[in-house]
Amino acid sequence: MLPFGPLALITLLFGATAIAVGLVISRSAAAEMARRLNLVAISENRQLPADTLAELVKTRTKKFDAQARRIFTIGIEHTWAMQASSLALVVIAVASAGGAWALSHNILGFSRVLAAGMAFFASYLGPRLLLARRQKKAERQFMDLFPDAVDTVARMIRAGLPITAAVRTIASEGTVPVSTVFAMIADELKIGVPIEQTLDASSQKIGLADFRFFAVAVALQYSTGGNLTATLETLAQIVRKRRALRLKAKAATGEIRVTAYALGGIPVLTSAALFVLQPGYLAPLWTDPRGPVILMTAAGLLLLAYLSMRMIMRGVTAA
Q1: Neighbour tally for 177: CB within 10 Å
Q2: Does domain 137-242 match CATH 2.60.40?
Q3: What are the Cα distances from residue 110, in Å, to 62, 101, 229, 294?
Q4: DSSP codes of every residue in 61-74
Q5: What is the number of alpha carbons within 13 Å of residue 114 lying toward its C-beta?
Q6: Helix pair angle (112-158, 163-173), 10° resolution
Q7: What transmembrane ranges does the database entry give (predicted)?
Q8: What angle do helix axes 86-101 and 50-71 make, rounded to 10 degrees?
Q9: Are 102 and 83 in contact, with CB atoms under 8 Å apart?
Q10: Which side of the chain, N or C, has fewer Cβ within a 10 Å radius?
Q11: Using alpha carbons only, what angle is made at residue 295 by residues 289 and 301, rounded to the nearest 5 degrees?
């Protein structure tokens, strides 16, 4: 018997088919646009370069990937660092749905309707967790590199260069993800947006307190005058001290994290060992109607305990 029933297959394939059809349509539109541009170029005795066509298709693909990511980030405020292709999102969604169906229908014995609902929920939750994880990772990398970027801006201003030139330099020569953020600022400055408005919009989009301090300091000093270099150097020192404090708090809570991992892993490892050594001992969890209820209750309590300890630790390390 296949692990997927007809209703589950319809649920799994619906999202994948929609994204695949959208990708085909997007690429077909890009190819059609490239063909028309090529015809216009030929009519003017010019030939459109191949790298221009490739860049056009790449741009359209990026736009489609961004639209696919927007589906899985509904309700998330900060999404500037979420990067994943539509193909990767489809693969993760299908794998998550398949795992949820196998667990809920084949192992826990839930009905097909309930298992299909859980599979659909997992197909949405899997890509969403992946994107959220990449966002958090990029934010940590940004905070590690941000003090050096502020020092670079301060040194360039001390050398007599304007703040706009410093922003463009970091955007072109900096390290990702700092260069990505400063590139967004540089692009808006290039089209004539005032620097105060650009920094305010970028700080709201990034959502990091230390970058907000930078935006406010630069905007105030740029509009009212003053020693911007000294302000930025002080800000860089404050950011480094805040990072050192967070690392110290993380080290102090290391024992709590290990304890949480151990307490969460012991029931799983013990159940796996019993399943291998004495399969009949755990058989009532599958054969008895009350077994799935016990399994779901135990999993929910373990998840609640883990989330509680994680919330406590993040409350300490987020200072």
Answers
A1: 21
A2: no
A3: 40, 9, 64, 13
A4: HHHHHHHHHHHTTT
A5: 8
A6: 130
A7: 6-26, 80-103, 109-131, 258-277, 289-307
A8: 30
A9: no
A10: N
A11: 140
Cα–Cα–Cα angle for 80, 85, 90, rounded to 5 degrees: 120
pLDDT, one tens digit per residue, over 161-177 is: 888 888 888 888 888 88
Outline where 225-289 has alpha helix (H).
228-252, 254-277, 284-287
Distances (CA, A) of 260 to 129, 241, 319: 21, 28, 21
84 vs 74: CA distance, rounded Å:
16
DSSP three-state, residue 282: helix
What confidence category does residue 6 fall into, taking pLDDT thresholds of 50, 70 and 90?
A: low
Q: How does pLDDT run across 54-83, given as a tens digit for each residue?
A: 666 667 777 777 777 888 888 888 888 887
DSSP annotation of 281 reads G
Long-range contacts of 33-38 (CB under 8 A, 24+ apart): 33/60
Q: Which amino acid is at 207?
A: G
